[in-house]
Batch of 2 targets.
Target 1
Amino acid sequence: MSHVMPVTPHSSSDSEGWSPQSWQSRQALQQPLYEDALELASATGRLATLPPLVTSWEVLSLKKALAEAQEGHRFLLQGGDCAESFADCTSPIISNRLKVLLQMSLVLVHGLKKPVLRVGRFAGQYAKPRSTDTETRDGVTLPSFRGDLVNSPEFTPEARRADPQRLIQAHAHSALTMNFVRALIDGGFADLHHPEYWDLAWVEHSPLAAEYRRMVAAIGDSLRFMETLAGPIAGFSRVDFFTSHEALLLHYEQALTRQVPRHLGWFNLSTHFPWIGMRTAALDGAHVEYFRGIRNPIAVKVGPSVTPDQLLPLIDALNPEDEAGRLTLIHRMGNAAIGKALPPLLEAVKREGRRVLWVADPMHGNTETTSNGYKTRRFDNIRGELDQAFDIHASAGTRLGGVHLELTGEDVTECMGGARDLNEADLDRAYKSMVDPRLNYEQSLELAMLIVRKSVGSSPR
Ligand code: PEP
Ligand code: CO
């Protein structure tokens, strides 16, 4: 997907007793209990022989691009499902998700006047952290559903058993997804070049309708102008696209951690850009141990309870040499908490002169449950947290370098609000998420336009 870029060798990969399995001597939270160690060993043994999903040169070229984002020369758009499922590994779901991400990125490129780095939350986003290990219904207690990488959501003992074969199935579904995404990108999405083909009926419902119509018309004009000058724009049909997932299930990640010819160290070749979730980011835990030794660019979710005293040692552990592009911090505070929680972290990292890319996840701090039992998020809270994030970074003299969103290209009704003002009753119509509520196609595009509107004006250039 990308070309090879020169990189500086990284010396710490094999240092201080690290190995792809050294995490096993630490406490590993959120791991399933496999009943049969031999069955697990046979599945991970097989997985370790299967081809990787990405290449080391793609991984290193993403790290370089993230370094450019740290300098303010690019903006990161990272998005996709909360949890992928094997059942959703279908042509329309994959292509619609890719389409909305590419359309959003065109809106951002045009508005922010800088290249957008596109990273999907897919081709491996199959494992989920859960608040409890077990679930009880009518007096029956079974293991919690932990994502298709581990078990199955139906409430039966067979379905909830942690099945090592799923490690191999997840790899296969990730490969199918990657293969289709790469083919779509290489072939080009015809209607990407023609915003007049985008589904924009929702714009009429927005108070900003006139402004949005002007924005979309201007994008169309720019694309046509460039195509007139240069012919069909190769850059739009061969856009770089990278993958990411929460590297939660460490047996899976370990089996796909490889050495390659002519590059030092170890690479996680299950994805370009793995991240550590909020629940597994303890400094002395297994996830931090695993992540410190891989050469990928990595991210960590940072929630509202994290203090500067906790964050700085984590940065030291994960990026001791202050390598450019290596570390992204994804803050996910909530619209109500961000004003208090974020500034001290920005100040501490700035004071210490540490190099990070700051990204806002305005989804995970804004989850609530409605009276009719749906897990939802309000568009106004998502937008509010993002607006505040831009302002807080601007006044701290730091830079918000990207956004991390849960979205789908489908017409679901999972988040409330947006131009069509979805309400509690609407959630019944098309609530499909197995885990967290996602922005639908329209809400995603609207948010991209709001990001442009907000950031032109408040972020340091
Ligand atoms: C997620 O990204 O789906 C997730 C579980 O996030 P967090 O770790 O921030 O809660
Ligand atoms: Co989620």
Note: Residues 82, 129, 246, 277-279, 301, 332, 364, 436 surround phosphoenolpyruvate (ligand 1) (CB under 6 Å).
Target 2
Amino acid sequence: MNILILRNEAEIGQVLGDLFCALAREKKNAVLGLATGSTPLPSYRRMISRYKAGDVSFKDVITFNLDEYCGLPADHKNSYRTFMRQELFEQIDILHKNTHFLDGNTNDERAESERFRRLIENAGGIDLQLLGIGRNGHIGFNEPSDAFTQEAYRTALTESTIAANSVYFDDCPMPRYAMTMGVGSILRAKRIVLVATGEAKAEAVKAMLEGEVTPGCPASALQNHPNTTVYLDPAAAALLSV
Ligand code: GLP
């Protein structure tokens, strides 16, 4: 894994936003794997400003999001579909039909998982996957567990994740379950960029980069990916030994 420590989250957002724009310009039907949470926002803002400046078009781009809560209507203000619409899709020229999400309300988890796997495969695989990291080392919503997960599945969220994300749920309880791409499906991306900023992520970053590869820290699986770069600010990198 490559590790880059940049000055702050704004600088990381600029570099990564430009990376996604470069791919959209270079490759017709580029396939982007996208993430939610607060960490990707500076990257999305950079993509929006490059689009508004006329530098890039996302009309031919295809996206897949990592995860979605179970039990929320798709248009709920806290759904990840709504998040992506508000924070990125409505502000660029991406076509709605090219944006893909797992259905958190499916009655058939296996069929939904298979549908998503095939869609990604038929698109040619994910060219560039953006990841954040949870305080407990989760990626997507793959929580620490006994075995690495493979394809998309329905997962129970841990107390740590519920505590971290509850702040976004001001008028309804936070869902306890989510559909998420599995670690195996995330690792099939051709190239991965993971971003971690702030001291709350420092322990997870250390475990991911310097700990053993273990499903107890799902992000540690990235140590086995051939093309992953981790972007950190100084606070998130503070506990690293090198
Ligand atoms: C959420 C998302 C993850 C995200 C993580 C960190 O639960 N499912 O994809 O990386 O938590 O979120 P944040 O960037 O807000 O710290």
Note: The chain has one domain: 2-232.
